[in-house]
Amino acid sequence: MLGLKLLTDPRWANIAESNLEEILTDHAWCEQKAASNAISLITQNSEHEDLVHELTAIAIEEMEHFKMVIDIIQQRGYTLGRERKDDYVGQLMKFAKKDGSRNMAFIDRLLFAAMIEARSCERFRVLSKNIADQELAKFYHELMVSEANHYTTFLNFARKYTIDVDVDKRWKEWLDFEGELIQSYGKKEHIHG
């Protein structure tokens, strides 16, 4: 369904589980950044009422996820660490087109968001199926479903609002790029690392 070119090695879940405080901190900040991204898209494209409505709901949901992760961190006696730089997201941002039309930049920003949601969904699936901690396995299964919904929302808006972009062609380019990029990741206790 997601079209990802390379799936995460299930052994990555062992790396994540070996340092739950780190993966949970990284995850919390991923949720905060996802909320900020939705708000940014709203701010830059407020003329689209349906987008404003849907992305407001996503921003709220992402902040609810942020709170849920923080609650788990606190319940387990961990500390929310400082925000981490996400090299994977930085590389995706460099791939996004910024030099074309306003519509092209808008569509690529939606595809950028869809790509992150797709990979997060896939990683949450790996965690839900491969970690021994049953509470977290259930938690990550629930979030996997949510991320899949966000992925389709961003992709559907790209298809709806394109003017001068062949969205299916550009999405394939995103998938190909991400398939190459992700080969360098999956070795750290980070959601995208």
From TrEMBL:
Signal peptide: none annotated. Transmembrane segments: none annotated. InterPro entries: Ferritin-like, Ferritin-like_SF, tRNA-Hydrxlase_MiaE. PANTHER family: TRNA 2-(METHYLSULFANYL)-N(6)-ISOPENTENYLADENOSINE(37) HYDROXYLASE, TRNA-(MS[2]IO[6]A)-HYDROXYLASE. This is tRNA-(Ms[2]io[6]A)-hydroxylase. It comes from Sphingobacterium hotanense.
